[in-house]
Each structure stands twice: as structure tokens, then as C-alpha cells.
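Quick start: read one record
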Amino acid sequence: MASNLPPGVTVSMLPGNRPEDIAREDAEEKLLDALIDAELTPSEYEIVRDVGLNAVKVFRECLKEEVQETLIACEERIVDLKNEIDRLKNPECR
């Protein structure tokens, strides 16, 4: 089957067909199914929207802080290891 895509481009690289697009669509479908199953009122939908979005924002901020703390700890460990390597390379330390 002939393709009109440029050389090296596959269908999975096109917007809407990328793995992250498919994952997002799957997640949205699961969310909609859960909302339908919950039989919420219109005002409850608004509460879920607000609370859910705020929860995600808080989660992202906590995750960001945790990643930053881990990064700092890793950088400190890298400096310690570099210093240890330098120390071991120094013939006076042997």
C-alpha cells in the first residue's frame, strides 16, 4: 500500500495517532465512563471538576517538590563521588 507520508514518517507520528494521544483518549474515556456510572447532578459535575483539577494541581506541586529534592540529593552524591574519585587518584592518598 502506497503512502503519501514523507520518508521516515509513520502514521503513529501524526497528531492524533501518537502513543500519547491514544493514551489521553483512553484516559478521557475512562473518566467519562466513571462520571456516567456515578450518576452525578450538574452541580456535582462542577464540584468534581473543581475538586479534581485542584487535586491534580496539588499533586503536581508535591511531585515537583519531591523531584527537586531528589535531584538535589543526587547532585550532592555526584559531587561526593567525584571528590572520592579525585582523592583516590591522588597518589598521596594511597
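The mean pLDDT is 90.
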